[in-house]
Amino acid sequence: MRPPVGTLLKTWRQRRRLSQLDLASDAGVSARHLSFVETGRARPSRDMVLHLAEQLEVPLRERNELLLAAGFAPVYRRRGLDDPDMSVVRAAVDLVLEAYEPFPAVVIDAGWHLVAANRGIAPLIEGVAEELLVPPANVLRMSLHPDGLAPRITNLPQWRGHVLHRLGREAHLTADPHLTALHRELLALPGGTDRTPPNGIAVPLRIRVGDDVLSFLSTVTTFGTAVDVTAAELSIEAFLPADPFTAEALKAR
Asked: CA dist 38 to 43, 57, 72, 200, 245, Å?
């Protein structure tokens, strides 16, 4: 049974570590009215639910759940990437992936499943066990699993600490039980963690490819104005050379 909308909003507010007064001030409503909404003494309008959800940075998928709990129809559609309406999104994704070549880039969904990749990813997945590549392949599992990239990552404790921290934060912010379960699974894998800040500007991924050790910095691109659940949950992570040697090695390949 779905909890009341007031209970859900209160949970999201507490997850964001905001008081009723903080949220009321940010949303431009009275703290008294917000209190009545959370306790069920007042029924919020559709616009109020969406407004509070926006202030709380609730993901689009969960905003639909809030609307349903309040007795309203969902407003955010979820189309598959093969839907004709998503042709512009697919074209944009393909354009970005191709632009990054020869550097690796992957498209992932909210659960960190691999949606697409460019040809530059080939050196990174050399030697990865077939079962880790079976769709829907999870890129974080692939990265940290002993049968995946982990044995070739020369700074595994540092990279693993970065990945687990990032995943744990996303699991907390989104309240996604699948991310929580994935975090628990990856935490149990061997490899250690090292959260000592690196000397450079970001935590690099250093991975052995053949006789070379290549070093990458990652960047993430998202659809910042998406109002479709699928588009909002897609992100493109590119691995750019962290040194001239890596850049030349990839261009040579």
From this structure: 9, 17, 17, 46, 57
pLDDT of 1: 78
Which CATH number is 84-252 given? 3.30.450.180
pLDDT above 80: residue 124: yes
Against a cut of 0.85, is the pTM above it?
A: yes
pLDDT tens for 203-217 read 999 999 999 999 999
Two tokens at 63? Answer: 């905003």
- pLDDT, tens digit (0-9, with 9 covering 90-100), for 38-81: 999 999 999 999 999 999 999 999 999 999 999 999 999 999 98
DSSP the chain: -PPPHHHHHHHHHHHTT--HHHHHHHHTS-HHHHHHHHHTSSPPPHHHHHHHHHHTT--HHHHHHHHHHTT---------TTSGGGHHHHHHHHHHHHHHTTS-EEEE-TT-BEEEE-GGGTTTTTT--HHHHSSS-BHHHHHHSTTTTGGGBTTHHHHHHHHHHHHHHHHHHH--HHHHHHHHHHHTSSS----PPPSSSS--EEEEETTEEEEEEEEEEE-TT--SHHHHH-EEEEEEESSHHHHHHHHH-
CATH superfamily entry for domain 5-69? lambda repressor-like DNA-binding domains (1.10.260.40)
